[in-house]
Amino acid sequence: MSTVEETPVLIIGGGVTGVGLARDLTLRGVPCTIVERRDVNSGASGGNHGLLHSGCRYVLQDVETAAECMAENELLKRMAAQCIEPTGGLFVAMNGEDLAHAGRFEEACAESGIDVCRVAPEEVLEMEPAVGRGVLAAYLTPDAVVDPFRLAFENLFDAMAHGAKLMCFSPVEAMTVVNGAIREVTLHNPATGDIQHIRPRIVVNAAGAWAGKIAHLAGLSLPMVYSKGTLVISHERIAERVLHRLRPPADGDILVPGGTVSIAGTSSLRVEEPDRLLPTTDEVDMLVREMGVMVPDFVQTRLIRAYCGVRPLVGTHAVADGRSIRRNFVLIDHAREGIHNLVTITGGKLTTYRLMAERTADLVCEKLRHAVSCTTGTVPLPEHAACQWSEPGRAPRYWMKAQQAGDLLLCECEMVPKSAIDCILETLNTQHVPAGLKAIGVRSRIGKGPCQGAYCSVRIISHLYDRGWLQGRQGGDELAAFLRERWKGMQAVLWGEQMRHAELQEAIHCGLFEMEHPHVQARQSTKSG
Amino acid sequence: MTNDTNISEPYDLAVIGTGMAGMSAAVLASGRGLRVAIAGLTGEILFSSGLLDFLAIHPLTEADRWENPWAAIDRLVHEEPNHPYARVSVAQMRSAWSDLLGFLDRWGLPYHRRENENLRIITSQGTIKTSYCIPITMSAGVLGFERNLPCLIVDIAGLRGFSATQIVQSLRDVWPGLRALHVVFPETGGMGELYPEMTARAMENPLIRRQLADVVRPGLGDAKVVGLPAILGISDSTMVLRDLEERLGVPVFEIPGIPPSVPGIRLKETFERALPEMGVCAHFQHRVFGLRTDAAGFRLTVGRMAPETEIAARSVLLATGRFFGGGLAAERHRVRESLLDLPVVQPQDRSEWHRPDFFDTRGHPIHRAGIDVDAAFRPIGPSNDVYHPLLFAAGSILAHQDWIRSKSGVGIAVCTAYAAVDRVVEALKNA
Predict the structure, then answer these.
(1) Cα separation, B417 vs B411, whole angstroms
(2) Element (H, E) at B182
(3) Contact predicate A263/A256, CB 8 Å
(4) Phi, psi (5° rounding) for residue A54?
(5) Touching check for B277 and chain A: CB below 8 Å?
(6) First-residue to last-residue Cα distance in chain A
(7) What is the mean pLDDT of residues A93-114?
(8) Does A101 touch chain B (CB under 8 A)?
């Protein structure tokens, strides 16, 4: 199939920046189309801590980023409250650490306009019993927790309500540049073979870590540095607040609570390519060791998953680990390189996604000579029913309250009922996302509990057949793809109880269902002796 | 169940572990006239699929299943001389199977096999599983599949993870004669959740069976055989099966599904009922807290939550399983044998335990970790010295095998248990 479509603005990248930009533009009355090579938040937007920074992390080396974070933190708590758990943060300097950083911290926060409050070490133990003894200094900060998936989907649904289109699984294959402008963008879905041509007036490259590759398709050079960050998820919530080492930013110094779990991170490793990255056992061991300095019991904590994201940093290749590149965002008007209708927005942080979208939309509107101002700073993000299922603890509350007859739980770890799955499935078609486990997983908590999908995946597949979403042998392929994806996060944290789970999962899916040799399932063959 | 705390006469053999290997060993040893005690947490046997695999895949990367498991074993033991099967003779294997199947038959849980052939049955996922012995309640499915008979697959409202439509759709190319039927289980509204075990127990009531037959019958059409989830009773599944077949007028079979499942419960209950009656001193649901040796032999400390009882025994068989069973414990930097910290053959580093692709057909190296034994099934260290002349090991805790990928779980459990019991008998005679 091959089609041609026109759109005023084509946004490449369905991360939080891309969908945030779509909302910003459509609220200004500018229709747009988002194209995404995989699913929403499949890059760094889905591979981070879920931390709504206060800016405190950056006060001593990047004042501009710190101030931006603080302003956006304060704004989003009001405008996107449903996506945020205002836990507060606690920055602690531990025994043996250089106190020079801590000594200047309070003053630097004040200069960046961040309210922090000093607490005595003995109070820290009362507030957060998980923190080890030997606290030298501690500050309460306005850090908070944000659900990046809910945030992206709320933005997306509001943008779509205002005329945005989303096309997932539509990677950009080529761009045609004529007379200093991108005339046509070709999308090619390798799974279906569909080819689409889009004729945009403006193209925004919001492809995150892949921004350099997109720029290359337009014949431009945009050197990127890829910094891989690995995080681990604990089986239980360890602290009430965001815990943060009070020291210059380094590996393994942040512990973010999220519903019933905690997330520790991150590592920072310079990598050559942003694709096919897996968390490694070395990275996990480093995180456990580093986190153990602030939270001693962390070395015994049961971890259920590790995952990684790639920080998109625009810069030179000379930097070793990516920590020292500034974390603020980059907005590039490629007119100066001869392409008048291409803009790149990359870098930045989840916390500043809205500001990045606003600045980008300002530039796009200027190019379109469309003089309407941004309203995302004053119009709260509406709540959409299909967005609620990614929030930890949301499904159980709903299920207990609703108690509809026949609404069986399909995922027991996270208590996700049939009705939640059906609600999500209804929205997939408009996003060009095929119904399946991975898509449901991005939009809900399924597979995120201790069983990591071993049980719920099987039940959901059966349900999808019963509802007519799957035919033929699709279910087996779906299940295998989902288990492979979950495995990426499991393989580096398999010891203790999780090893038992993994062994059972393999006994079920390989021992009983014999899924490791799928092609034999399609034909009847045995080897005679 | 006995609770003798001060036995003057030690048992001939104490079996530690109540999975397939431990239970079989107790049955076999008791049958050889030994005085046997057994202790362990029986929970894990519930997770058995109820299918008794022998060997279907070798080498692991070769997808074709072996039709004749004995031929597969012959090749395996030549290629992998360290494999536990290489320490068991073919005669021992044949006796192991006939003893186990004879035992299960005598205690009301008959199994079906073709002595020199693996069987192929469909699963709840709509895949095909190769196994050696299957419960009699599943046997009609083998013929139905082989002959592509018109077949009705029935699913039940509220039993999650079992969709007749899924099975029919997934298998439509290899078994085109399948049709799906969705029914509400008798005396349920069809809205709530059903648990397989409760449903199976309900099937022991003739009234429920009559009502179920009444809702299935109108859907039969030309079906020559009917497949159901594994819910055909617990304690007398043969009777439930025959009664339902009579009411429907066609053969009926169960389709194995995700554990914990009813066929696993049947195995557990059969062993738990039989062993005490056979005179085995059984400490089910008991943990073994410690094992020490003295001049007289071994002393095991067992109890539920805390140590309660001591068992004295002349010999010990360790059949504690792997990670899921608790015989092996994975720490962050090494794999440890849980009870005695016996040497464990294992990869150097955790980064080598698993492969990046879950379904990598070579299998994950960690699954070949385990206890190394000598020819007499006695745990040995790196320099081949035995830990104790009367300490034996059997089952999945043994190194150099991947029971999941090769489809050989129960076979390894039963055959090594048999061979180890042979060695125990021999050693006690000489002691």
Answers:
(1) 10
(2) strand B178-183
(3) yes
(4) -90, -15
(5) no
(6) 48
(7) 89
(8) no
